[in-house]
Amino acid sequence: MSHKILILPGDGIGPEIVAEATRLLHALKDRFALAVELEEAAIGGAGYDAAGEPLPQATLDLAREADGVLLGAVGGPRYDQLPWEKRPERGLLAIRSQLELFANLRPAILYPQLASASALKPDIVGGLDLMILRELTGGAYFGQPRGIRTREDGVREGFNTLIYSEPEIERIARSGFEIAMKRGRRLCSVDKANVLEVSQLWREVVERVARDYPDVALSHMYVDNAAMQLVRAPKQFDVIVTENMFGDILSDAAAMLTGSIGMLPSASLDAQGKGLYEPIHGSAPDIAGQGMANPLATLLSVAMMLRYSLGEAAQADRVEAAVGRVLDQGQRTPDIWSEGCAKVGTREMGEAVVAALAD
Ligand code: NAD
Ligand code: IPM
Ligand code: MN
């Protein structure tokens, strides 16, 4: 049976990087017998332009039917003045929420060839292999009430609600322990329990779930310290589990350890393992249309889709090996370029990965 994949290019560099993912999927189909059917739909600013909504109903329907969804990125200055409900980012949040994609896996792996592209010294990042598990459908991103209001004294105030229920904490904690069991069996839960009640409950529930996983060493860390430790000694971590906004911020920081934000893929999974796959970076308006964006995070997101949603582990290995080979050969987009390497654009990078696919 053929896997149905929905492609959502989105905005800015989205269409450029997703074109390379499409090229890769076609190559896997033609040369390595991957059974896939691709379909494309609009989301974000592109959804707003096409249908007046950042998440058109037709896109959501196709996403529900697909075996895997691949997204580029959404957002851009052209859409920043739209009312909140119409903003491109709202489309992304809505698809995550509608599909109940609560578990967001963001692996930060340093390819040894990129040690000199990292902002940190090679001995600090060499061999880095960290998994950040970000809760994706709760917290301040979705909590009610929210808004901007005018007080009786005429002063305006903006407000959001950082809220997590016990079942929401329990299911992401359980995912964290399950992932840790398959890796180094160390789980660090990151919170702000010294200040926030929501974090106190988070810690209590994580402790309770831990009793089912006696083989996993659980630790807790405050988010401010975690940000510092990620830059000081990132290899102390195996799996980090944290709430939505902390995970958003920490994963951008972790990306830089691997050389560039253009290197970090992600999987957003529901309870059944269905998922949406996307690079963690945004639509990069500053370089959009110039053909210089790094497509590797997107190609590595395809590998995650093959592994997690399509049961095609061998094809995933093939893609990851091809990326390694291209880095060995020395091709680099500008964000990961260093002395002695060949500077290439988005398309050349995508073509190089396709050319490096092997049995
Ligand atoms: P960004 O991630 O788009 O860009 C931050 C910096 O990283 C920029 O200098 C950009 O050029 C660079 N960069 C990002 N991806 C790159 C790549 N693949 N190759 C090379 N360089 C890359 O973040 P931002 O500038 O804060 O946000 C821009 C827009 O993207 C906003 O509208 C924001 O809301 C949106 N955004 C979307 C997503 C998403 O779709 N998942 C994620 C983050 C931001
Ligand atoms: C991400 C992005 C999104 C987030 C925005 C664009 C809604 O930053 O995927 O990391 O904050 O989750
Ligand atoms: Mn982000």
Protein described:
It is a single chain. With 359 residues, the protein is an alpha/beta fold. The protein has 2 domains: 1-107 and 266-359, Isopropylmalate Dehydrogenase, CATH 3.40.718; 119-258, Isopropylmalate Dehydrogenase (3-Layer(aba) Sandwich). Helices cover 40% and strands 19% of the residues. The strands form 3 sheets. It has a 10-stranded mixed β-sheet with strand order 2-1-3-12-11-4-5-10-8-9, sandwiched between helices. The two termini are 22 Å apart. The relative contact order is 0.16.
The low-pLDDT segments are none
Q: Classify the fold: give the CATH topology of the largest domain.
A: Isopropylmalate Dehydrogenase
Strand runs, count: 14
- In the CATH hierarchy, what is the class of the largest domain? Alpha Beta
What Rg, in angstroms, do the CA atoms define? 20 Å
Structural class by SSE content: alpha/beta
Strand order of the largest sheet: 2-1-3-12-11-4-5-10-8-9
CATH superfamily of the largest domain: Isopropylmalate Dehydrogenase
Helix content bin: 40-55%
Largest sheet: 10 strands, mixed
- Number of helix segments? 12
Domains counted in the coordinates: how many? 2
Rounded mean pLDDT score = 97
The SSE string, one letter per element, is EHEHHEHEHEEEHEHEHEHEEHHEEH
Q: Give the name of the CATH architecture of the largest domain.
A: 3-Layer(aba) Sandwich
Q: Which ions and ligands are bound to the chains?
A: nicotinamide-adenine-dinucleotide, 3-isopropylmalic acid, manganese (II) ion
- Assign an overall shape: globular
Binding site for NAD(+): 76-89, 282-294
Keywords: Amino-acid biosynthesis, Branched-chain amino acid biosynthesis, Cytoplasm, Leucine biosynthesis, Magnesium, Manganese, Metal-binding, NAD, Oxidoreductase
Binding site for substrate: 96, 106, 134, 224
Family: Belongs to the isocitrate and isopropylmalate dehydrogenases family. LeuB type 1 subfamily.
